Amino acid sequence: MALSGGDPVEEGLVASLNRPGGNVTGVALFASSLGPKRFELLRELVPTAKLIAVMANPTNPPGNADRRDVEAAARAIGQRIIVLEASGESDFEPAFTAMVRQRADALLVMADPFFNSRRKQLVALVAQHAVPAVYEWREFAEAGGLMSYGSNITEAQRQIGLYTGQILKGTKPAELPAVKIELVINLKTAKTLGLTFPITLLARADEVIE
How far is CA 115 from CA 53, 126, 136, in A? Predict the structure, then answer.
């Protein structure tokens, strides 16, 4: 039984996410591997975006790998992006200044422990600049962020307890899926930005904050 912040398949811990196989299961948080999917969701919401800003922490190695995947995804479809680097609070102001100067149409905040610890500050700055943004954890959306896509930390911890009970009752670890990813949308923030979520996105949302 494990709680993982990486990709358990890539790390060789399980055969697949839905059917782990062997004697190992757990809950994968996917803290630093969903950047390309968040990028895809942001483009679906703002298909006319000519330039998308990507905020990343250069001191976070797993985050850097995820950022490179986003850059590759952007190149593959010809989407222009700019990377805004921030590893401390003093970097936020110049990062947002650069975003405004280059007229970015949307913002992808990469998964990062530092960004998560400053989520209220980040959400407030994004609101101040009135730019559509996608984040990692649902807590960003609950704090007023437009959209989040990732694991639910509270649910992951609860799931670990449930899995432990099921295994003790005889359920095979190989039969317990290792991941649950959720899409959370904040319609109040969308209204403030004058945005309308496409039905395709709303239909896939696990939670809609109104």
Answer: 15, 13, 9
